[in-house]
Amino acid sequence: MSERATAIAVRVEAFVRDVVIPYEKDPRIETHGHGPGEDLVLEMREKARAAGVLTPHILPDGGHLSQRETALVLRKSGLSPLGPVALNTMAPDEGNMYLLGKVATAEQKERYLRPIIAGEARSAFFMTEPAADGGAGSDPSMMQTTCRQHGNHWIIDGRKTFITGAQGARVGIVMAKAPEGASMFLVDLPDPAIRIERVLDTIDSSMPGGHSAIAIENLRVPADQMLGQPGEGFRLAQVRLSPARLSHCMRWLGACTRAQEIATAYACTRHAFGKPLVDHEGVGFMLAENLIDLKQAELMIDWCADVLDTGSLGTAESSMAKVAVSEALMRVADKCVQVMGGTGVSGDTIVERVFREIRAFRIYDGPTEVHKWSLAKKIKRDTLGKARHD
């Protein structure tokens, strides 16, 4: 690991433990999946800015840490569910920053990327669509949102759902189907043509703005706000989604590392039947299994990060990492709750909240089953291709 990443990670961890974790009991943290309030977000980010740890994965010259370096820094930011919010390493902003840094024009970067990196604006990624409409979920080829060119503008119509952070966002990236194929557009928010129908009540509650159902009606977007060219939407989506899946793994590994710390401390100090809980084989073995899962998750993340750092899109590798890490961390979170018994399902510690967040993580950015299906298709394709070559 590079010295610069190690130094950043040390500062990030200290900030999360000393400054962010005390906010976990702040009454301004909203419930029912709607995320922390804007005043709390701004307050924590001002402290992060003053401490020199805001958006720590983006370098002062605008460059990006390598994926391996980012893995260490984002893991430390995730030691609290509020850490990525405070440090500006959260989804969807982190993934949107990565995409815009790779494909946006200089003018687009100045107008849309700069405020996100500065922590002054939140963003949203409008891709998923309602199942009831037959729209795109895990299968983006089913996209129903359309765009058509009218002079030097594009007009977009459709519906989106589970759009993280749309409420309160100032920058949007909208995917829509043009005659040439799926395309991406940058939009200023709020816009009266993009209407939030409702903010969904979800099991997780760490994302500012929650997850919204959206109606897009006669949205007019100047042609120079298209990302790339018409029909390049799916290609650009892969530029974003492979690293973004891995970033989820990084952040939630940090959260489960913290849950393990809390459960271990509980098991070492709580006594039952004449000895500490940790000395009971059933409890001690659960903590040992967690240690194994955490280390395997870390190694899987680092391996996938190395692949992405070679310049490959790493689609298959990021799918493998998403499956392996999300399932491993679910086991860790579940065992932490079990070790702590009644305390584990209460709000007395952050463990219960981590459990809820990790359960959602198994679905967001592609459910486990979709990634397995994608990998199975690759296995078949590679095998048949090899057979034809032989």
Name its key features.
single chain, 390 residues, alpha+beta, Butyryl-Coa Dehydrogenase, subunit A, domain 1, Butyryl-CoA Dehydrogenase, subunit A, domain 2, Butyryl-CoA Dehydrogenase, subunit A, domain 3, 4-stranded mixed β-sheet, 4-stranded antiparallel β-sheet, 10 strands, 50% helix, globular, AcylCoA_DH/ox_N, Acyl-CoA dehydrogenase
Characterise the protein shown here.
This protein is α+β, with helices and mostly antiparallel strands and 390 residues long. The protein has three domains: 3-90, Acyl-CoA dehydrogenase/oxidase, N-terminal domain (Butyryl-Coa Dehydrogenase, subunit A, domain 1); 123-231, Beta Barrel (Butyryl-CoA Dehydrogenase, subunit A, domain 2), CATH 2.40.110.10; 234-384, Butyryl-CoA Dehydrogenase, subunit A, domain 3, CATH 1.20.140. It has helices at 3-20, 38-51, 67-77, 83-87, 93-103, 106-117, 233-269, 281-309, 315-340, 351-361, 368-389, and strands at residues 123-126, 146-150, 153-164, 171-178, 181-188, 194-200, 211-222, 226-227, 271-272, 275-276. A four-stranded mixed sheet has the order 1-4-5-8, with helices on one face. α1 packs parallel to α3 (67-77), α7 (233-269) packs parallel to α9 (315-340) and α8 (281-309) packs antiparallel against α9. The two termini are 41 Å apart. It comes from Sphingobium jiangsuense.
